[in-house]
Design brief:
It comes from Streptomyces avermitilis. This protein has 119 residues and is α+β, with helices and mostly antiparallel strands. It is 47% helix and 19% strand. The chain has a two-stranded antiparallel ribbon.
Amino acid sequence: MADVDFRQGAYPVSGPGTTNLADILERVLDKGIVIAGDIKIDLLDIELLTIRLRLFVASVDTAKKAGIDWWETDPALSSRAARSALQDENRELRERLKALESRTDDESAPAAAKEDRGT
C-alpha cells in the first residue's frame, strides 16, 4: 500500500471556492445589480397607495456606462451643479430686473415729457 500525504495543501480541495465579501462587492459594483419591487396598499379592493422601488447598485463608472449620471446635475449632491444652478438663477433674476427697470423707464418717460411741456 502506498503512503498518502494528508498534510494541508497536499491535495487540491474540490467544491465551491471561497469568496470573501470584498470580492463579491467588487463583482457587484463592476457589473451592477438591479433590485426592483412594488408596494401596494389596498383597502376593500381600493388601491390607496402604490410605491414602485427600483434600486441600481453599481460603481460610478458602471452607472455612467449605463447612462446614469443624475448626481452630477443634482445641486444637493454636486458642488459644480450647485454653482451652475446659482448662476442660472442669478442670470434669470438679472434679466427679470432689467425687464422691470425698462418697463418702469418706459412708463415714466411720458410723464417726464408732460412735465417738460408744462401740462
